[in-house]
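Comment thread on ticket #2218

A.B. wrote:
> Attaching the input chain for the structure job we discussed in standup.
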Amino acid sequence: MNKLCAMRKVIECLEIFLLEPKVMALSELAQLMNVTNTELLPIVKVLESKGYVAFDEIDLCLRPGHKHNPGAFLLQQGTQKGVNETTLMKVRNTIREIPPERDFSSSEFASLSGISRVTARRYLEFLVLNGILRKGNQHGEVGRPINKYRVVAAK
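C.D. wrote:
> Ran it. Output below, let me know if you need it in another format.
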């Protein structure tokens, strides 16, 4: 991709975010721009370094950056009650430390992150709703099944 073509793609990417500032999967943006994820990634990295987008490598999503929407680079508009940016950042950092093939419960996650089990469960459920985590059950011999969470594999 030559410099002029790359600049056009950067401008096209910015226009997409200006028209509809929302959380967007890297693959969705690549499809809109008619490029591959591999071709789009360097463009995203440039825009991220300048603060126009925030790229989350866990879920391969882009969010409007601090230059576009101050303070909203982690939280989506209309975030559910009880979810705040500081705790969400702590949860995200803990998730980055967990191997992608590992299942974990809210109790295990609470121990790893240093937050309460109830808070851990609320944030894990929030991330399930947003497609970042997947939830399943582990059944024992007696009692209720244990909810187990796992990071959704990147496509």
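A.B. wrote:
> Thanks. Noting for the ticket: The first strand starts at residue 24 and ends at 25.
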